[in-house]
Each structure stands twice: as C-alpha cells, then as structure tokens.
C-alpha cells in the first residue's frame, strides 16, 4: 500500500545520506505548474525538500482537451515528476495523498503518516465545480485529470459508434449531439475539436450516419465566448466556431442536467454527451489550514503569498486568492502559478541565507492570454497586441510546444500536430475502459 | 446504449444504398489479425460484409508488453478499425459484443439483436487461462488488452513508488520483487523490460531505494525459455536474461498465488507484483456453435477451416484448432491467423463467383519465429537460419515496425525506439487509474 510519505525516522535517514540532519525542511504539496516551479527554483537551496503529489506525473493541463478529443495520447502531455527532478539532489518526490495539515505541530498529514516541515508550500490546484449541483457530474463530466480526458474521449467516440447502429432517429440525433457547458478556453477548444472530429469521422469512417451532421452546442451563461479576451477576439471566436458548425448559445444558463440532455430555462437540448467546462473550485487547502477562503474555496493569502499569521506557510496557484496592490486579482493561469512559485522560492532562499530581505508584494506580470478554436484558428492577446486566425493558431502551437516538459514530448507533439494538419487525422481515437457511452 | 449491431431492417437499408439487397451477407466476428485480414481480402467481393468487434480498435498484440512496461503509449499500437477499412465500401464496422450464434437460423446474436449471415467467419482470439485457478487472476493479471497493459504498467510503476516510502525492509524487498510466470515470448519480453526499467529507474530517479536492486524472477514450468525455439536460442535467451539481472527458474511449476507472492512447491517467492504469461484459452466460439473443442477451448475445424457439418461457418486464428496434413498443429501466431484469413477469403470469393473450385486443405507456411529479450538482444529463427544478439534485435524491430498498422504508428514507434535506445529512457511512465499497487 502506498503510504503518504516517509515517517520522521526515514526522512531523517534519507537526509543523513545527503547532509546534516538539521537542515531546513521544505514540504511542497502538489506538482502542477506552481509546485514544480517552486521545487526547481529551490534546486540549490541548503534544505531537504519533499515534493508530494497524488499522481506520479506532472500534467500539462492546457493540452488536456486534446487527449479528450483524440488528438494526443496521455503520455504526450505528462511526465513523471521524479524524472523531471532526477538531478536535483536535495529533493525527494513522494507519491501520496495529503489529507490535512497539523499547523501547530508543523506537519503534513495523510494516510496515517506525518511529514514534518519547517516551511510549507501548498500548490494543490483546483477541480471542476458544479455550483451546488454535484449530481450533474455523472452526466456532464469535467476535465482536470488524464482519467477525465480518457473518459470523455471514450464517451465522445462511443456516441458516434452507438449512432451508427441506432434504429430510432431521435436517439440517433441525441447521440450525434454534443453539448459543452462553459465558453472559457477549455470549452471553446473542446467544442472546436469535437466539431472537427465529427465532421471528419462522419464523412469518412461511418456508413449509416454518413449523410448526417454532428451537432455541437457550446452553452455559455455570460454574454460572450472567451470573456477574458477583448470583445473583438470574442466575436472572432464565435464566428470561427460557427464556421466549424458549432452552435454558440450565449446568455444561456443551465438549469438542469440529466443523461438525456440539458435544460436551459425553457429550452431543452437532447444529448447523450455533455462536457462540463463551466467552473472550478479550489482544493480543500483552506479547510486543512483552518483559514479564510473566498467563494471559490481559495485561501485568501497575504501580499507575500503567506497564510495570515503563518509566515512559514505559502499557498500558490489556483488554490490561492491573491489581490495585487492595484486590487486586481491574479488570474488562474499557468504563467501566474509559475511566477508565484518563483517568487516563493526566492523568498525562501533569502530566509534560508538569513539575508536582510523584505519581500515586496507579489505582482503578476501578465504575459498575455491565448486560445485555439481549431485548425488554423487561434486568438492571441498580448497586452495591446491582438491577433487571430492562422497566425494566432501558429503562435498558440509554438507557445504550447515550448512550455511542454520533456524533449520527447515536445518532439512527438510537434510531429503529431504536423501529421494531423497534413492528413486531417487524429491519432488517438481509442475507446478504452468500459465499452459504451455514459459510464 | 451501444447495441450489438444493426437489426435486419437497417442492414437491408444500408445494403440498399450500396447495391441490391439480395447480396450475399458475410459476417466476420473479431478484428484481430485473422478477422481483419479476412475483411481486407474481401474488399472486392460482391457481398455485404459486417465486421463486429467489441473494441473500436485493432490491437497489435505483439507489442502489448511494451505498453505494460512503459515503453510505448496505447495509441501507438492500436488503430480504429473503421479507419483501417474506411475505403472499403462493401464493409460495415460494428462495435458490439457477440454472445452466441443461431446456427440453424444463420444469425449472430448479442445484446438482444440478430445479425443474419450467409457466411460466418469467427476470429475471436484467445484470452489468458489459469488452468482452473481463476482466483489467481486478481494477484497475477494477464496481458491481452490495452486495459490489461495499462493496469500492469500501473502496478509495476506503483511498486517502485511504494518501495521508495516503505519502512519495513521485508516489505520493500517484496515491492522490489517482480515475478513473471511463463517463459514464452510475452514472459521473456516482460521480464527483460521490467529488469531494464528497474535498473534505470533505481539508478536515476529514486532516493531511498537508490542503492537497491529490483529482483525480477521469470518462472517456467518447462525445462527451457522460449520452448518453441531451437535449444541454442533458448540457452542464449536464458543467458541474456541473466545478464540483465533476471533470475530464470526453469522446471518450476506454480502451485499457489496470493497477493503477497507465489508458491513453487516448497519454495516461496515474496512479491507484490506478479504477471501471468503462462497460458491461453480460446474464446467461447465452440459453445456458441455447439461443436467440438480441444482442451484449450479451440474449435476443431475441418482442413478447409470450416466447422464440421457447416461449410458456411469458418473459424480461424487462436480460436481454431487446425491439424495440417502432416499432423502438425498450426501455431497460435499472427502470421498463421493472417494466412488463415487470406485462405478463407479466397475460398469465399471462389464460392461467390460460383467458380468450379475445390479448396485444398489449409497449410501454414511457417515464416519463422522471433522474440526480443531487451536492448540489443533478440532471437530469430527462420527455418534453418538462426541468429541472436544485436542483429536479432534489429531484425525483430524492423519486422514489428513493418507489420504495425498505420503510417503514423510506424513512424512514432520507430522514433520512440530510437530515442529510447539513445537515452535509455522509457517514454510512457504514467500511473493512471486507481493510484497505488494491487488494485
């Protein structure tokens, strides 16, 4: 059975092999963008670092939708954490599930074990939220883990298979209707990719449903798609989606979901395949720490990212609610988590050296936002520079390749995208796990 | 819900769109090597062909062990069946589970539906067999599907993770001990790959268990490894395995298995990770047809591969027991299934043309056998030509790339093998699904 982490005794033992046992102990929980950046930036710290994650891999979440839509394989967007940190001698990677924190006793708790810390960094991310309707999760799964992605891939591909042999025309329409809730980047990217997949598959691979069209509906409660972008990019996104055959329903709030469809007030969309991309909720770090959380469950931290009253505990990434000096919130983006990780690591390094150092408050250096709608259609907003179309898509592709971890992944993803662009084929159209739709 | 296949009405409807409805109906069950070859060889047949499989993908089983040992991703060794047969207008691909055959009424049955046939080809393969000890399956899973492979990958990788944080030295040894039962090609390939994985991972990626060695034990009831090969190749295989650090136990019959280890008569091997590669059992086609089966459950067919008394039903591949004129059995190999598929298709084509044709009995044109032990170590036996070592390994690699289906798979697998060879890294070290060993 996998325990959470080593007990004090074996931690001391491990430390003994690399240095004196009295070294400062830093525990980082979570190896997403924030946690991994923190760990890497502490590579030369005179400290014993333990990085705990419940997965053995770092996941490049921005490309998760491509696994869900059969464009990429899970292995291409994930890397084993311990391989990434292989050469970092002061760091141990531990596979385990954290269940709480003993704030007074300075130890992380889980699976009956304690991992003591001098400094704690919590970077446990967020999961999808159903705004009090957790019963919708079964019919409309969200997309946060590789398992989620493979499960959505199975549902989407199985729906086409089931439509091919469905006798009842109404059921066939339900099977060929895909509803994505939420028009943020994930929702937009999912809708575009499913539309492209359906168009290609129905044209080439099926017989009975060859003449039909997949109906892809993107539902958004707010007034525009990609609300974080400039209005003209939102407009472009809507038009680009519509060119792909996606119906974009704005100002449409979901009032009910079941496994036969979704209710938007009076209107009902009959569908066997729903995807939830509408909301996130932070991991339960606030409950572990017994401190204040915002409505999304995020820990409200000080300007230096510490927990109020606990300068030894940092919370970063999607788990932290950070207000900057100008009052604007730090967005839940990978670059923000990375910058927070780097900031926290630098603060810890200064403390370890005992250097006279007063941290300025964290401020996010917004590098820009970008999203893709489909083949040769992307939107990019870098401060005042904005562009879209083929150029936006190329820029999006290059940026994502660049930030993907691992030479092999960068190389094979580039290659797969090139092949897909040239052949219109998606390389990962496997139905695995339970056969058949809604599982 | 995915139904088995189209009902008669919709089959007639589908046929109407491609030709007259009175066309000969050929149903092929199973899209492994045998079934897929049959379907492809019937591409120009004046018939309506339905190919039924319970998976949406054709699986290249000879490389399945590489998925189980984190060398390749599932998507690299599997292709969607309907994409493979996309351009074959006379063939429909149906995702569904067959549960029986109405031999008198000439229809395949499953999930409450009937698929009528004039000619039936059964190519449903085999699964692993525990010789009456099905209770061993939970502790010692076999390797036949992608799900099996991902599950074994999870167990193997999780065992290293659990060993890294285990406090009890005895438990750590159990976690670092891997037992593979059966020294056929799959068992040999698994043992070699796990030994290489363990050697590399323990040297580079772990901390607490860095100084330790993974113990890999290959257990075989018979007197040699790769018994189908010439004795000198068996000897080479044993030596090559031992060079990799694998303990090869010959003449060692398993008498009991539990989740803490395996019993070989008086001797006990303590291990948390067992893999079963010792026996296969045919799919239940004999029960569907109500005909004679051999001890491995295979249908005993006529020399022309038809079921006795039913010239319209063929059974091929691992589901068929075929004796050739010289009395020797046809081996359960991919080339044999392919040749049987081609033979059956040609026989059906002649019958369809009403040509005066009397089939000679099927005879297997043995092309040779080959297996790999690990990096730069393979064995090849082509009739009287035998070689091993680096040359055997290169030959093995080229043959497997050549027979892999799909340009993209050939290309990415070649590439991944090249990168692995140069870097010693395995590219697919993901633990997905339930976290933690034995699930």
Descriptive report:
Two copies of one chain form a homodimer. Chain A is an alpha/beta fold. Chain A has twelve helices and 25 strands. Chain A has a six-stranded mixed beta sheet with strand order 5-2-1-9-21-20, with helices on one face. In chain A, α2 runs parallel beside α10 and α5 (146-165) runs antiparallel to α6 (169-175). The longest helix of chain A has 20 residues, at 146-165. The radius of gyration of chain A is 23 Å and the shape is elongated. The two termini of chain A are 28 Å apart.
Which helices and strands, and how do they pair?
Two copies of one chain form a homodimer.
Chain A: H1 8-18, E1 24-29, H2 33-41, E2 47-53, E3 57-59, H3 64-68, E4 78-80, H4 81-84, E5 91-95, E6 100-102, E7 107-110, E8 113-116, E9 119-122, E10 126-128, H5 146-165, H6 169-175, E11 177-181, H7 185-204, E12 215-219, H8 231-243, E13 246-249, E14 256-258, E15 261-264, E16 267-270, E17 273-276, E18 280-282, H9 285-289, E19 299-300, E20 306-307, E21 310-315, E22 320-321, H10 334-353, E23 369-374, E24 377-382, E25 385-388, H11 389-403, H12 407-423
Parallel strand pairs in A: 1-2, 1-9, 2-5, 9-21, 11-12, 11-17, 12-13, 19-22
Antiparallel strand pairs in A: 3-4, 6-7, 7-8, 10-18, 14-15, 15-16, 20-21, 23-24, 24-25
Helix pairs in contact in A: 2-10, 5-6
